[in-house]
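Please produce the structure of this protein holding magnesium ion.
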Amino acid sequence: MADVIRLMSDALANQIAAGEVIQRPASVVKELVENSVDAGSTEITVNIKDAGRTLVQVIDNGCGMSVSDARMSFERHATSKIYSSDDLFCICTKGFRGEALASIAAVAEVELKTRREEDSIGTQVIINGSQFMGQNPVSTPVGTNFSVKNLFFNVPARRKFLKSNSTELQHIVAEFQRIVLTHPAIAFSLYHNGNLIYNLPESTLKQRIVNVFGKGLNQELVPVDIDTSIVRITGFTGKPAASKKRSDKEFFFVNNRFMKSQYFHKAVALAYENLVRPDCIPPYFLYFEVDPHSIDVNVHPTKTEINFENASDIFRLLQAGIRETLSKCDVAPAIDFDSESDDIDVPYFSKDDPMPPMPEVSYNPFYNPFDAEQKSSRQSYQQVQMPVRDKNNLENWERLYSGGTDMDSMENMNESGLHDPSAFAAKVENRLVQIKNKYIVTPSKSGIMIIDQRRAHKRVLYQKYIEKVDANADAVQTLLYPITLNLDVQSFAMAYDIRDELQVVGFDMEFNEDNSLTIKGIPPFLSQNSATEVVNDIIDSYKEGHGNVSTSIKDILAIAAANRETIPYGKQLSPDEMRQLIDSLFATNAPNYSPEGEQIIVIVGLDEIEKRFANS
Ligand code: ADP
Ligand code: MG
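Below is the modeled complex.
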């Protein structure tokens, strides 16, 4: 029998390796941009077409390659970055396996143009599916220009496996973000189908974060510097008020390389415990510096999961360090971390809460979303049907509304139960006070409860709208006069990306060539007047999250619709109105937080009050 073992062809070996390294267009972006970073570039431009299916082009102004290096760079295990196995442990550059270019060239049509400063003319190499097509002199600026076309053209199974353009683009944006957040001194730009998505000049780290994620973050970040013998952790973490359910701004880097870590995420989450809603977390951008010998970056081919020798020590240092950072920065002045109290745990109050202007608005601010029959916001309390509450809310409500501090009254309250709202009405009569037309204050079991009226109302309206969005799925209110909305290129690209989701919630829109939208239909519960603002809000939220896949358009729509109607600060409320607002608030699923994660209720504890008097 003839021998059966043969050496695989290089092309086949490369294709197999590519399966590991190049999973989707975003992998190509990552590998090429990292190479450009390693080449000492100060400016890197990324051009994407059709979410990278048609083209991924990366242009840099780095060191460039010689004629023979340009050809060599596509060979497997060709790398200028590792000379010995010792280097494997002290990796400072991004790439180190020397197989990225070989893998990319195995599954795409690649054109490389490159020139070094000392060369008067550059060189062009063309390789299609591992097949060398030719190399020629070419006139090209100093630096390197890679064009990767028709990815997976020769691997149909892979090509089919790719997700929708918007998903693939989100992966690209995610990879891009991870790199730009580690190199603020390099200028980056990213284009998709000719539209500029990011333009990031050279800047400080904080400025880079803000440029990537929006100006809104500027006031919300607290600098972190935890310096210990086993790890130094620097970067920024968000104030508790900046916490969000959407988790698209959580970044760990180790030795300036992105890493995923559910484990360390947990440490950060623990540091924020009691400061934010359990399912929310503020953004964080944390950079670990450790001895390269104490980590193993080779556990995963795409190298985002990293093993730490001192993982559990770092966990504790991180958790304690973030807590301390928050307390030092006075963003959490009144927190008693060890509180055993089962009262609503919300003694956080942000000094930075902006005081928005006070527009005059006229509408019924006290619509009770749970009572469709309700005719007038001024109905007497007894006539208003009690909203349905789940057990937890019921308990909160009882606790908060027990009024006095003695247990007797608490028990009486429980006995009279919530089935008799008038009993509560009598108890809380005259106990609600409005201050500065902004807060509602009332005694609570454990001190004084302060409710932010605007946020409370937002929560109530959000609940109403999220239910409407669900109930009306697919229904459209056709506009008699379509509305035209002019957008900048980025917003237009984003809106286009989410067109399917917008349609599902009831928007009927046309996308025009001049970057405008024609809105022909809107969700049935939206008013025509608010349609454009709500669409803008949705695009903005989506942009802010950079199209995080987990972002629910329904959620954004409900928040946007609620924002449009929320009573402004400065609105005077009658005792009845206050009571109704609070009542509706405690009927919602999450009375402690606005849909955007802002604190609604603050309790100033008796302890705190007593301490104040003791010091005087
Ligand atoms: P690695 O990055 O792991 O070394 P790659 O396959 O990504 O392997 O790249 C192979 C080699 O090609 C690099 O080591 C480098 O010498 C060269 N190279 C790749 N991209 C560039 C670039 N943009 N500028 C200069 N040299 C590059
Ligand atoms: Mg590389």
